[in-house]
């Protein structure tokens, strides 16, 4: 089994090539739209590098009366916080080239977490940036629906999950909705 660092490098390269060669959009699939209810908190993210862009998913959540949140991090070691955000609000520059809400925005508990990822497998195990930010957020919000957002080229045969890895309920790619056993 390839180690996680080597896999991350290979998958980031595949993702970046894919994005440059064929511009795609992630459209909201019907099973995602069916989850949205007024008053739910949906955590999205602002993409960096070649990450899949969840803007259309966030817009669909707003159109359904959901509240949007974005992750806020200060360092690799400290856990992320989900802060309330609206497209009219400004974004600050954060670490790792991130764009994130101002640190004193209201902290909220998400019902649905749209999560960026570096890789995923058929069991919907997720490979992230390696800081454990989302692993820890999933542990802190166990009732939240965990939905990965990715390009199809980010799927790999099998990831060897670590004991702390929590599988996703579903992944949305440019080809649509992939549901896990626990969705
Ligand atoms: N768009 C986005 N927002 C996010 C994440 C993410 O993966 N993507 N996070 C996920 O946890 C959290 C931020 N944590 C991060 C932890 C480490 C690195 C990191 O090591 N970045 C590499 C470059 C990665 C690349 O090119 O894709 C670096 O700085 O060397 C990035 C984000 C919360 N917000
Ligand atoms: N629930 C948790 N509580 C505390 N630490 C955790 C938890 N989950 C993961 N970690 C720590 O986070 C580190 C990184 O884990 P891993 O390599 O699986 O990250 P990742 O899933 O790729 O990245 P990320 O979640 O940041 O996108 C590990 O050293 C692990 O000990």
Automatic annotation (TrEMBL):
Keywords: ATP-binding, Ligase, Magnesium, Metal-binding, Nucleotide-binding. It is an enzyme of class 6 (ligase). ATP binds at residues 126-134. InterPro entries: FTHF_cligase, FTHF_cligase-like_sf, NagB/RpiA_transferase-like. Its EC number is 6.3.3.2. Its cofactor is Mg(2+). SUPFAM superfamilies: NagB/RpiA/CoA transferase-like. GO terms for biological process: folic acid-containing compound biosynthetic process; tetrahydrofolate interconversion. It catalyses: (6S)-5-formyl-5,6,7,8-tetrahydrofolate + ATP = (6R)-5,10-methenyltetrahydrofolate + ADP + phosphate. Substrate binds at residues 46, 51. The keyword ATP-binding applies. GO terms for molecular function: 5-formyltetrahydrofolate cyclo-ligase activity; ATP binding; metal ion binding. The keyword Ubl conjugation does not apply. NCBIfam families: MTHFS_bact. Belongs to the 5-formyltetrahydrofolate cyclo-ligase family. This is 5-formyltetrahydrofolate cyclo-ligase.
């Amino acid at each position: 089994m390839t180690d996680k660092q080597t896999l991350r490098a290979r998958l980031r390269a595949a993702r970046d090539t894919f994005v440059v060669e064929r511009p795609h959009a992630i459209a909201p699939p019907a099973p995602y739209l069916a989850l949205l209810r007024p008053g739910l908190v949906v955590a999205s993210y602002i993409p960096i590098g070649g990450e899949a862009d969840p803007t259309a998913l966030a817009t669909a959540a707003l159109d359904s009366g959901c509240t949007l949140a974005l992750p806020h991090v200060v360092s690799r070691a400290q856990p992320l916080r989900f802060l309330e955000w609206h497209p009219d609000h400004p974004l600050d520059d954060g670490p790792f080239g991130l764009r994130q809400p101002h640190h004193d925005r209201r902290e909220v508990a998400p019902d649905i977490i749209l999560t960026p990822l570096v890789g995923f497998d058929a069991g919907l195990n997720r490979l992230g940036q390696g800081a454990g930010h989302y692993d820890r957020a999933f542990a802190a919000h166990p009732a939240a629906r965990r939905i990965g957002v990715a390009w199809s080229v980010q799927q790999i045969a099998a990831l060897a999950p670590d004991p702390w890895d929590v599988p996703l309920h579903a992944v949305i790619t440019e080809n649509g909705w992939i549901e896990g056993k626990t969705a």
